[in-house]
Design goal:
The protein has an 8-stranded mixed sheet with strand order 3-2-1-4-7-5-8-10, with helices on both faces. Strands 6-9 form a two-stranded parallel ribbon. By secondary structure, the chain is α/β, with parallel strands linked by helices. Strand 1, helix 1 and strand 2 form a beta-alpha-beta unit. The protein has one domain: Spore Coat Polysaccharide Biosynthesis Protein SpsA, Chain A (Alpha-Beta Complex). The N and C termini lie far apart (40 Å). The protein is globular and about 50 Å long. It has 7 helices and 10 strands. Bound molecules: guanosine-5'-diphosphate and magnesium ion.
């Protein structure tokens, strides 16, 4: 296993499972944003033994890009657990998550990172469902499922896009917080259980993947419902006030 660079200020965790079509383009675009904006940042890809050769492509790419680390897990263990694995393999004070299929626009990175780097808030969430945000090219079925999922989670947080997977946070938000998500929604888990005062929701355009296959299916939808149940139970037994500033 390659050693993670523990001196970076920002770690971008990228969970992958069978993303050979987009991973290199994604890494090129994100590394471009990192150098263009002079971010002290690394990319940690957590691959769950993708049978399509995603890991080999990342390995080759990382030979010429020192700020990319690949963490290999043996089998598919879920998006949220891959993110937690990534968080636990770095000491960076700022952490974040992006999908590898280019749905999370790399050029939105400065808008999510700068508020944290300038200490304006504790968490930034890329949002499709506030003014300025939108969804591009998604089948209507996916859009309806997503809006319903947001509605179902709406009592858990003030964030409008509760199912967003594009977010950054200060590490202290999750220090000593026992994260135990089921399935996909690591951001929601953190919004409910994390220690923070201020969240900034940042509008961005979510583009549906143009290649590869989504791993969000019936199984993940059912896991989301189970996860919601756990989070509502958690919320009932703990009292916490969080503040939203944008
Ligand atoms: N490591 C890992 N990554 C996953 C897993 N499931 C999904 N991903 C990755 O998580 C990101 C989001 O998944 P995606 O299929 O695009 O979900 P969708 O955007 O909701 O359709 C992508 O980068 C996937 O490759 C998993 O079990 N393990
Ligand atoms: Mg996707």
């Amino acid at each position: 296993m390659t050693k993670v660079n523990n001196d970076c200020k920002v770690s971008i965790i990228v969970p992958t499972y069978n993303e050979k079509e987009t991973i290199i383009s994604f890494l090129e675009k994100v590394t471009h944003q990192i150098s263009k904006n002079n971010f002290d940042a690394e990319i940690i890809v957590v691959d769950d033994g993708s049978p399509d050769g995603t890991a080999e492509l990342i390995n080759n790419f990382s030979k010429t890009h020192t700020n990319i680390t690949l963490l290999n897990r043996r089998e598919k263990m879920g998006l949220a657990s891959a993110c937690i694995y990534g968080f636990s393999n770095t000491n960076s004070p700022i952490l974040g998550v992006m999908d590898a299929d280019l749905s999370h626009a790399p050029d939105a990175l400065p808008y999510l990172l700068n508020p944290l780097l300038y200490n304006m808030c504790d968490i930034t969430v890329g949002s499709r469902y506030i003014p300025g945000g939108r969804v591009f090219n998604w089948p209507i079925r996916r859009y309806i499922i997503s809006r319903t999922a947001c509605f179902l989670g709406s009592l858990l947080t003030t964030v409008k896009d509760v199912t967003s997977g594009f977010f950054f946070l200060k590490r202290e938000v999750i220090n000593n917080v026992p994260l135990d998500p089921i399935g996909f929604k690591i951001c929601l888990e953190i919004l409910v259980k994390g220690n923070y005062q201020t969240i900034m929701e940042v509008p961005f355009t979510f583009c549906d993947r143009i290649s590869g296959k989504s791993k969000m299916g019936t199984k993940e939808t059912l896991l989301y419902l189970k996860h919601l149940h756990k989070l509502y139970k958690h919320k009932r037994t703990t009292k916490k006030k969080n503040m939203q500033i944008a």
